[in-house]
Amino acid sequence: MWKDLFRPGKNEKTDMLDVLKDNILFATLTRRELKYLSSLLYERVYQQDEPVFKQNDRGIGMYLIAKGRIAINTHNPQGDVHVTTLAEGNFFGELALIDPENIRTATAIAMDRTALIGFFKPDLMEIIERKPDMGAKILFQLALVLGRRLLETTEKITFLTRTKGMVLPHDEIV
Amino acid sequence: MTRLSDANLRRDLIKLFCVIASISGIGALFFYTPALSTPTFLSILFAMLFSPLVTGLERRGYPRTLSIIIIFFTIGSGAVTTGFFALQSGVKEWESFREDAPKYFKTTVTKLGQYEAAQKKKYPFLQSVQPTQTLLSWGQDTGKWFVSHGASIMGDLLMCLFLVPIITFALLSEGVLMRRKFFQLIPNRMFESVYLITMGAASAISDYVRAKIFEALIVGLLAGAGFYLIGAPYAIVLGIVVGVTNIIPYIGPVIGAVPGLAIAALNGSPIHIFWNMFFIYLIVNIIDIAVIFPFVVAKLVNLHPLILIATVAVGQQYYGLIGMLISVPVATAIKVTLEEMYRIIYEKHGTRTSFQETPLPRVQDHG
Q1: What is the sign of the dihedral through the CA atoms of A17, A22, A24 and A27?
Q2: Tens of pLDDT along B250-260?
Q3: Measured between alpha carbons, how far is A120 from B322 in angstroms, rounded to an integer?
Q4: Domain with B253 in it
Q5: Mutation choice for B interface testing from A42, A76, A104 by most B CBs within 10 A
Q6: Which residues pair with A53 in a beta bridge?
Q7: ipTM of the complex
Q8: CB A47 to CB B7 under 8 A?
Q9: What's B363's DSSP letter?
Q10: pTM higher than 0.95, yes or no?
Q11: Contact B188/A105, CB-based, under 8 Å?
Q12: Quick check: is B262 in a domain?
């Protein structure tokens, strides 16, 4: 247990630069920028079934999965619903980077012993302040990701509406 | 599952114990070692002050270490140049003040003694009150304290001059690494909350310190220039005193005015100098209250005036002048911490009104 207390064990140690460069948010950063970014990020190790955050918690940033798997669940009056399972290379919680009053919309739980890399809003603000070019690159990629998610959601709603013969509350969804 | 939760809880409790023990140990070390705590405290202030300048250079593409070196070199050479030329008169004033201080003290004691004798003759029930004797004893004790502690004060000063630049440099260049190391100690279950609270409090303190130092600089410059224009004695030294004491909320301006008015009253200057100095104190404080404080500081410290005064009093009670100076930033940090804790605990299960009111469907992200 002692080896787990303050730093990842040998199995969890990751080359953070490799994880970062493979992520769409940081794909446009140079090696030097990635190195600087890695100096701001936080490596955390979670045990199996340990929650990373819970639904309705205040959110401060996103997590990249360096090793392991994360279950995303939501809780509603009908019970718990498993939304998706995220694996190495995926990331979650990115809305908290730009939303000032972010409340987590789902619970994230480690399915295995999982190594995460945390990237939080104050760190993004620090990058924007200290290295605006780099901040712009990250924000652009973040906008790209959110735009894609919005498109996917719109398509899903349209599909559901057509298949179930529902009428949309608005004529037009962005 | 239960066994796993128990193991996680045990691990988190051990981590938490280590964090509390580390923080308490460092706190105790600083509390019982003023030779270390004073330079560290000053270095933190300097680091907060220089941080935006370093960031400004970094934004222009300079590496962080080079940016810090440039700032140190510029400020260091600027201080030496200013010290060599502009502060010559300030040093002369200080020397003169040091020589004249016993004379002022003697005059004060004589005048107070005469007044006391006259009052006691008029009101015999005042016989038991001994203000002149008390002042004399205080003066003698203070003099003895300076004689006996002179060498150690000089030693502390030299230690500060040696340590402050080194610690400030380390804080500016390694601050992010130190922050990461600290957060590494925090258990997972409270990591996000501690991160949120710590960043909020640190931001509130550094904003307040920068605003207050800016305010002190403006007030000190205005007062010094005013004293110089009216030909008041020790204009530069008194301007610095006004600036430094202005950092203490509410009572600082009063403390800052006492030495100047006392000197004007006791050194035999014409009476109009006393009144001119009084009006300068008044005008500078009106400018501060009406213009500088509302636009620079008040936005950052949203504390009730009564709480501010109580905070300063508590600071003075336990840590003297340093306590008065750091009491407000500490109170600000406590306020931000409590606000964040309130939001985390009580608004945790709240729903978001902004999205409820938005007609568009919510974008579903993963968490």
Answers
A1: positive
A2: 778 888 888 88
A3: 34
A4: 188-348
A5: A42
A6: A108
A7: 0.79
A8: yes
A9: P
A10: no
A11: no
A12: yes
